[in-house]
Write a structure and sequence with these properties.
Layout (H helix, E strand, L loop, with lengths): L7 H10 L5 E5 L2 E2 L3 E2 L6 H10 L4 E5 L2 H4 L3 H10 L4 E4 L5 H10 L3 E5 L8 H11 L2 E6 L2 H8 L5 E5 L14 H6 L8 E5 L5 H10 L3 E4 L1 H5 L3 H11 L3
Parallel strand pairs: 1-4, 1-10, 4-5, 5-6, 6-7, 7-8, 8-9, 9-10
Antiparallel strand pairs: 2-3
Helix pairs in contact: 2-4, 4-5, 5-6
């Protein structure tokens, strides 16, 4: 059984089929690069607002040490959201996946840069058994080869280097390099460093089926209006 919002890939392809930019709004409490992003605001309320503004899905960062996340925030967002919710964390055990399922996540993010070769298939298999869709995240060509060996339904391209906790100056050129190499039939998400319509347009033109945007939305004076402008400004 998937999370209450259904499969993430279906939400992405559904929006794309309606010629609406599939945008996943990322709720990231904080980051080493940008500091506090949610602050005193209620994450569940932000989630409702962003879905109302047109986000086809949400992601929630639950890693506590560097990004200020928690499973409690994930649970509260999953309870209120009517779209699929992707959990972003550094996964290293199947027990974490069981917690994901309990909180209501529809999908989980596996960052290959932080997962040993031997563990990747174990985590992927268990996610499938639990009904969690796995987004396999890459940043390099060698990680793409590892990702394809898992036969994933979704690949995420992180334009920044997670090993530097996304403090590097990465940009959409990473998507432009890697997206065309991903076989048809696999949903492609461009993540990070997407600030304005031009960044998103470049990602879509390179082959991204969806974009994941968090920091720019959360830092905007009016997050819902900013998100709506991004969706309306890019043709798919």
């Amino acid at each position: 059984m998937m999370g209450r919002g259904g499969p993430l890939s279906a939400a992405i392809l559904g929006a794309k089929g309606r010629r609406i930019l599939p945008l996943i709004a990322d709720i990231k409490p904080a980051s080493p690069r940008d500091g506090h992003l949610v602050g005193t605001r209620d994450a569940a309320a932000i989630a409702r607002t962003l879905v109302g503004a047109g986000a086809c899905a949400l992601s929630v960062v639950t890693e506590p040490r560097h990004f200020g996340g928690s499973l409690e925030t994930l649970r509260r967002v999953c309870q209120t959201a009517k779209v699929p919710v992707l959990q972003k964390d550094f996964f290293s055990s199947v027990e974490q996946l069981e917690d994901s399922k309990k909180q209501g996540a529809a999908a989980v993010l596996f960052t290959l840069a932080t997962i040993p070769d031997s563990l990747g298939p174990v985590l992927y298999r268990r996610a499938c058994e639990l009904g969690l869709e796995a987004v396999v995240e890459i940043h390099t060509r060698s990680e793409l080869d590892r990702a394809l060996a898992l036969s994933p339904t979704i690949i995420g391209i992180n334009n920044r280097d997670i090993l530097s906790f996304e403090t590097d100056s990465g940009d959409v050129r990473v998507t432009e390099e890697l997206a065309p190499l991903i076989p048809e039939g696999i949903v492609r998400i461009s993540e990070s460093s997407l600030q304005e319509e031009d960044d998103i347009r470049r990602a879509v033109e390179a082959g991204a089926d969806a974009v994941l945007v968090g920091t720019a939305i959360l830092k905007a004076d009016d997050p819902a209006a900013f998100l709506s402008r991004l969706i309306g400004g890019v043709a798919v």
